[in-house]
Design a protein that fits this description.
725 residues, alpha+beta, ten-stranded antiparallel beta sheet, eight-stranded parallel β-barrel, 15 helices, globular, binds alpha-D-galactopyranose
């Protein structure tokens, strides 16, 4: 709820309050933290947090909602605009607050859906006459807010925007603990923690995509103030900055990366930022819970909101490029017999693609291999399976009919050989003609084949950023993402029942922008279970289970050569949008039997696993023990997976405490049947015992047969917790 009174704006969420006040043309943040009561005078807060003394320090003004190059603070700021003569100065005066309705429907610009109220703050730049609008929106039953800005050139001259970020939050604190999700291919979104003190730390992507290097999701723990979570509804270059200055202040900024940015704003034009989703809580668990609900209720499009996701089989690691119609149908038959619901044909079905150096852009069926995609789709659907198909729409190969017909569609600098990566080049999506081409090419296949699912891959980063259609390349990264979003929008609104899964060499573009169009994302090409534990723990800090594609693959794993038991691989993958990615024909019959039981169990518990309230147990990234628990809304049922990564002999047996249960309910605790479990454990106790006392599971973690078969393997157990009537 947003209340305006005097020169205050008070924004209340379920448990938090953001209190703003305009004083002498500056909008200050008086409080962002736990809920505070309505009052008509907050002078006591103002006097203690706003320090407007004039000194020679560069940090004399703090807790402002906007900062620029003209406000006297030479620390990181939010808005940088220059004139054609590179004059950097802007000076914003805050004109006032109003509550507005900007609840736009689903459009080609990803944004949070179903807003409740929005506070609009208007600023006037007295140097160039620009207008800046800042928007802060609330959401019913949520602790999250969204922040965004729009800069309008209401002046008389063209200006260039070198930076326009989405949000700024200042804190009176001499240090901040910053959590982020960082990584690389096959090691995406590892949870990292560092203290920022008297220094600046930034998390950035410059690859053109949100990237596997640094995800836009971050958490800040501010001493004596609480915990703040932040994410950006954007898929391109982003930056999240924390600057701590020795006087005892910290500033957080998030938004579009200003790398190679010089956005031209002619008179009358405007530039809007993506929305930042920001929430306040008292623990890391609070942030995870708020962000999960927010993604489920305000990012995922309505067709897939809280919808159960099918169990799939992807043929990539089963066949790679080497398949025929009959081989695929055989695989699908076997898949159906063990209970799989969706068969996905990955790379290699189009043009003359038998290796990765050709045919990208030629989305034309290779009938020699597929026997005709429409027939293949029919044959697979006739078995009772759904059918899915892989594309990599944003790419082009030199060796392709598309390049021969339209060399100008390629993203490349004139007169220079482009740099190849993974034997491929990128298409110039800043060119609207390329977007039109892709809409038509993909729509043709969708119409003919009627896929139920599409995997949208993107296997390289941008290097030679250039468009034959653009005058000012300081806008390229932004314009590419606009083209991509327009493409996605046109396809997903026309084919709205297709379940799209984003993928980018695994998880190189796992973000809220893609999730707005595509309700799930393949988390990583590394599906080896012990690495996946860490990748998934990181991912689930900010993204709910249903958005995270997770598969069981073969051992030894194709990426890491590690081996883990089939049961542990299932225990790990089943906390996501679940599937298998292996050659079923190569499996012994007892493993197929095990799979059958796993799938049956998954289907029975699917709603809880995909949409239940998730809590981390322990810390699998930085310690030997951990896991997770998912709990249903009325706390009558939960499933926990607990993991011991490495056996430490001659030490106290591993102990676990649980979360999210009802302390007053008595629960029955039992194990999921696992073929590698010799002994089992079951008992009854109250929720408070499960949550407060470390429970030891007796010999369970010592008795596993395949600890001996796979020496390097971890042990995992899935625990079913049910309220006793
Ligand atoms: C990427 C994806 C894989 C697979 C291959 C196909 O690496 O992440 O899952 O689709 O491309 O080339």
């Amino acid at each position: 709820m947003i209340k305006l009174f005097g020169n205050y704006a008070k924004i209340d969420t379920l448990n938090s309050t953001l209190l703003l006040q305009i004083v002498s043309g500056t909008c200050f943040k008086l409080h962002y933290g736990n809920h505070i009561k309505d009052d008509d005078d907050y002078t006591a807060i103002f006097d203690s947090v706003i320090d407007t003394y004039t000194s020679s320090d560069d940090t004399s003004y703090s807790n402002t909602m906007v900062s620029t190059t003209g406000d006297g603070n030479n620390i990181e700021n939010m808005v940088r605009v220059v004139s054609d003569k590179n004059v950097f100065l802007t000076r914003f005066e805050c004109l006032g607050f109003e509550v507005v309705d900007i609840n736009t429907p689903y459009t080609n610009t990803p944004h949070a859906l179903d807003k409740d109220e929005t506070l609009k703050i208007t600023y006037k730049d007295v140097v160039n006459n620009l207008t800046l609008y800042q928007y802060i929106s609330t959401y019913k039953n949520s602790d999250a807010l969204t922040f965004s800005c729009e800069l309008v050139n209401s002046g008389a001259k063209t200006v260039f925007v070198n930076r326009l970020l989405s949000a700024q939050l200042d804190f009176e604190a001499s240090e901040v603990t910053m959590h982020s999700l960082d990584g690389a291919w096959c090691r995406e979104r590892n949870h990292n923690v560092r203290v920022v003190k008297n220094a600046k730390t930034s998390i950035e992507s410059r690859s053109g995509f949100s990237s596997n290097l640094h995800n836009p999701f971050v958490i800040l723990e501010v001493p004596n103030q609480g915990v703040i979570g932040s994410n950006l509804i954007y898929s391109g270059n982003h930056m999240e900055i924390v600057e701590s200055v020795p006087v005892g202040r910290c500033r957080f900024l998030t938004g579009l990366n200003d790398y190679m940015m010089r956005y031209k704003l002619s008179v009358g034009e405007s530039l809007a930022t993506p929305e930042a989703v920001i929430c306040y809580g008292n623990s890391l668990d609070d942030i995870t819970s708020t962000m999960h609900d927010f993604v489920r209720n305000h990012i995922i499009r309505k067709e897939f909101r809280n919808k159960e996701r099918p169990v799939l089989l992807n043929n990539w690691e089963a066949t790679y490029f080497d398949f025929t119609h009959d081989k695929l149908v055989k695989l699908a038959t076997l898949a159906h017999s063990v209970g799989i619901e969706l068969f996905v044909l990955d790379d290699g079905w189009f043009g003359k693609r038998n290796t990765d150096n050709c045919s990208l852009g030629d989305w034309v069926d290779n009938t020699e291999k597929t026997g005709g995609l429409d027939k293949l789709s029919r044959d697979i659907k006739a078995q009772g399976l759904k059918f899915g198909l892989w594309f990599e729409p944003e790419m082009i190969s030199f060796d392709s009919d598309l390049f021969r017909a339209h060399p100008e569609y390629m993203m490349r600098l004139p007169n220079v050989d482009p740099m190849e990566k993974r034997n491929q080049e990128m298409l110039d999506l800043a060119n609207p003609q390329v977007v039109d081409y892709l809409v038509n090419a993909l729509s043709d296949v969708f119409e003919k084949v009627e896929p139920d699912y599409v995997k949208w891959d993107c296997n390289r980063n941008m290097i030679d950023v250039y468009s034959q259609t653009l005058d000012n390349h300081g806008e390229y990264y932004i314009r590419y993402i606009r083209g991509l979003y327009d493409l996605c929008y046109r396809l997903v609104t026309r084919f709205h029942n297709i379940l799209f899964e984003a993928c980018s060499a695994g998880g190189n573009r796992f973000d809220l922008g893609m999730l707005y169009f595509m309700p799930q994302t393949w988390a990583s090409d590394n599906s080896e279970a012990s690495h996946r534990l860490v990748i998934q723990e990181g991912t689930l800090f900010g993204y709910p289970q249903s958005t995270m594609g997770a598969h069981v693959s073969i051992v030894p794993n194709h990426q890491t050569l590690f081996s883990t038991s089939l049961e542990s691989r299932f225990n790990v993958a089943s906390i996501g949008a679940f599937g298998y990615e292996l050659d079923l024909e190569a499996l012994p019959s007892e493993e197929l039997e095990t799979m059958k039981k796993q799938i049956k169990f998954y289907k029975e518990k699917r709603s809880l696993l995909q949409h239940g309230k998730y809590f981390r147990l322990g810390d699998l990234t930085h310690s030997n023990l951990g896991g997770w628990i998912v709990v249903n809304d009325d706390q009558t049922e939960a499933i926990a997976t607990i993991v011991v990564k490495k056996m430490v002999y001659n030490s106290v047996r591993p102990r676990f405490t649980f979360k999210g249960l009802n302390k007053d309910y008595k629960y029955e605790v039992s194990m999921r049947e696992q073929t590698n479990l010799k002994s089992t454990v079951s008992f009854k106790c109250y929720g408070d015992v499960l949550m407060n006392c470390g429970i030891d599971f007796k010999e369970l973690f010592f008795s596993e047969v395949d600890r001996y078969q796979h020496g390097n393997s971890f042990a995992s157990r899935m625990i079913i917790i049910k309220k006793v009537d």
